[in-house]
């Protein structure tokens, strides 16, 4: 997984090269591709994660990383209604892909461009 020891302090890091290695090293169970139906909350904390597969996972701590749309949706499905997701603004985007002669593996060397022609004033 991570390459944190091999990159400089000013390099842009991904979650995979920063927090995930530390979390797994501390005993965290990281699951991807799992659809969560709801979180069961008791005493102000998540006590159980209920998956669409029917599996129920108990944990002392739960970190939800489902993105800007699905995180608030999960919190709302779980009964948390403190305005989660109400401030969401969806920005239209387009993805352009290219084929290169060799591998491009350094995210710092892949430029990103932003077009604000149609953005509100």
What does this 3D model show about the protein?
This protein has about 120 residues and is of the alpha+beta class. The chain contains 2 helices and 3 strands, in the order αβββα. The protein has a 3-stranded antiparallel β-sheet. The longest helix is centred in the middle third of the chain and has 11 residues, at about 65-75.
Key features of this structure:
extended; single chain; disordered N terminus; alpha+beta; about 120 residues
List the helices and strands and how they pair.
Blueprint: H1 19-25, E1 36-42, E2 45-51, E3 56-58, H2 67-77
Antiparallel strand pairs: 1-2, 2-3
Biggest β-sheet description:
3 strands, antiparallel
Strand fraction equals: 5-15%
Low-confidence sequence ranges: 1-7
Instruction: Report the order of strands and helices.
Output: HEEEH
Tell me how many strands there are.
Answer: 3
- Tell me the radius of gyration: 19 Å
Q: What is the tally of helical segments?
A: 2
What would the average pLDDT be, to the nearest integer? 80
Helix content: 10-25%
**Rough outline:** extended
Q: Structural class from helices and strands?
A: alpha+beta
User: Distance between the terminal alpha carbons, to the nearest Å?
Assistant: 43 Å
Strand order of the largest sheet: 1-2-3
Summarize the structure.
The protein has 121 residues and is α+β, with helices and mostly antiparallel strands.
């Amino acid at each position: 997984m991570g390459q944190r020891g091999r990159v400089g302090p000013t390099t842009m890091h991904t979650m995979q090269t920063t927090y995930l290695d530390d979390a797994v090293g501390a005993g965290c169970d990281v699951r991807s591709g799992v659809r969560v139906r709801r979180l069961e909350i008791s005493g102000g904390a998540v006590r159980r994660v209920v998956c669409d597969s029917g599996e129920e996972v108990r944990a002392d701590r739960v970190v939800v990383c489902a993105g800007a749309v699905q995180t608030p949706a999960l919190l709302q499905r779980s009964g948390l209604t403190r305005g989660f997701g109400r401030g969401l603004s969806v920005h239209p985007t387009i993805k352009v892909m290219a084929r290169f002669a060799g591998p491009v593996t350094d995210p710092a060397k892949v430029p990103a461009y932003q077009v604000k022609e149609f953005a509100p004033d």
